[in-house]
Design a protein that fits this description.
Layout: H1 4-10, H2 20-74, E1 104-106, E2 118-120, E3 128-130, E4 141-143, E5 152-155, E6 170-175, E7 181-187, E8 190-195
Parallel strand pairs: 5-6
Antiparallel strand pairs: 1-2, 3-4, 6-7, 7-8
Amino acid sequence: MSSNFQIDALFPRLQGLVDPKAEKELFLAFHRIYDYFNNKIDLSNADIQKATSKQTQQLATETSQLISNFASKLVGQGNQGNNPLQTLGSGTVTSVSSSGNILFAGSGPIVDAGSLSFTLLTQNKNKVLAGPITGADASPTFRLLASNDMPRTSSAANPSITELPNSGDWCLHKNTTSGFIYLAYNNGGAIVKVQLI
């Protein structure tokens, strides 16, 4: 309820303008009117809060139901009435196939169900799958080996542990003194070589 201080602040004083008794009656009447509207405002606010709470609860319930329907459809459960997601997940594969490349041949097309299979394509003999011989890196192709594909070393002597420090290393080595070219291999620390030219 409102205090007399608030009423005093709002109610204009009529001292000297009307009889004191009349002023008192006017003050009491104004007080009643003020309290009446205050009560109405409080009731309106309570109604608004109650309605808002009810609407919030209803919205939460509807949202929960929609999420439940959505989840049910995702796992393929039964009819969801007017759920707009009722047809979610239906449909069939109409056609799937694989495109070929230089290495594999693919099967297909597959209609509705099946498996894709791949087989190696037939290649020309004496060719290897390798990147370009020179220039920038690029996709590999089947081609003949070139000298650039092989590691090469040269020195004034036969190939040694200097050129092939690790077991399993191999190279073409040229002895610049004799002019001989060797295919050399590090076999567990021992250099094995075969003279080619």
